[in-house]
Amino acid sequence: ETGVTQSPTHLIKTRGQQVTLRCSSQSGHNTVSWYQQALGQGPQFIFQYYREEENGRGNFPPRFSGLQFPNYSSELNVNALELDDSALYLCASSPPERSTGNEQFFGPGTRLTVL
Amino acid sequence: SQELEQSPQSLIVQEGKNLTINCTSSKTLYGLYWYKQKYGEGLIFLMMLQKGGEEKSHEKITAKLDEKKQQSSLHITASQPSHAGIYLCGTTGGSYIPTFGRGTSLIVHP
Q1: How far apart are CA A5 and CA B75, in angstroms?
Q2: Å from A15 to nearest chain B CA?
Q3: DSSP secondary structure, A31-63, as one string
Q4: A85 by DSSP, 3-state: which?
Q5: Do A90 and B103 touch (CB under 8 A)?
Q6: Backbone phi, psi, residue B81, to 5°
Q7: Contact status of A23 with chain B (Cβ, < 8 Å)
Q8: Inter-residue contact A37 to A109 (CB < 8 Å)
Q9: What is the pairing mode between strands A87-94 and A110-114?
Q10: pLDDT tens track for A11-35
């Protein structure tokens, strides 16, 4: 059974640019959540996708957007990058039961640096 | 919004020592999760607690949720270098928005 994978592992961008991060969920999982983790902080919930629809969103501006595909993989897009967007971006997938109340399986993360 | 406060922020112990990490919620907990994170990596699920007074153990790690469901503790017995990492508590609260504490950094000296 393949776990949650994320790509790329590291990324360096400059202010104002756009970035797309990718996540492949664990086999059989239909829910994907994205988190932003700044250095020394806990993960902050960005949003969740369930069956290709956004199913909950944290306190992040609209320039953070996402997609979920029919195979349940997901993308996180961030437009107009700011310095404060530098963080570890984590993707987590959950099995088909009620997603946010259950165990989440996390990927290794993508480290984004904005210069 | 619900907030989780963890204490201590960091902990350095000698191998073989016991330790406890606390997680206090600003509101009633409807499910409390403990995760472990190695520096710069993803989170690994440890345990989930739902009922007041519930206690679960996995190997040398025990987690408890107090009766009033506003505090949880994670206890490690006879710590080993493999226990080193960041321990995070998390919850979904009544709104189903996942919330995490800031984490407790644990270093275990051999």
Answers
A1: 31
A2: 23
A3: EEEEEEE-TTS--EEEEEEETTEEEEE-S--TT
A4: helix
A5: no
A6: -55, -30
A7: no
A8: yes
A9: antiparallel
A10: 999 999 999 999 999 888 889 999 9
